[in-house]
Amino acid sequence: MESTSDIVLAALALVLIVEGLAYALFPEGIKKMMAAALNAPSRTLQLLGLTAALTGVIIVWLIRH
Predict the structure, then answer these.
(1) The domain containing residue 49 runs over which residues?
(2) What are the distances in angstroms from CA 21 to CA 12, 13, 18, 28, 35?
(3) 7-65 residue pLDDT tens
């Protein structure tokens, strides 16, 4: 059985892979998204971040159970 630290490290590695591919494949799109984020209200960004985090928790829970 995998240890918790192995799972956390694998998850972090997957985040780096996805983020790295996004920057490598769509650099102009990333720039546009960053500009849009600068103009978005902080509350909107907080809600999007919270939604993404909760979605991730739900996915991990579904996979593990």
Answers:
(1) 4-64
(2) 14, 12, 5, 13, 19
(3) 889 999 999 999 999 999 999 999 999 999 999 999 999 999 999 999 999 998 898 88
Domain count, the chain: 1
Measure the CA–CA gap between 54 and 30, rounded to whole angstroms: 23
Give the pair of three-digit tokens for residue 21: 């591919």
Contact 30, 22 (CB under 8 A): yes
* Token pair of 22 as six digits: 């996004």
| Structure tokens given for 59 | 């996915």
Could you tell me which of 54, 58, 16 has the C-alpha nearest to residue 8? 16
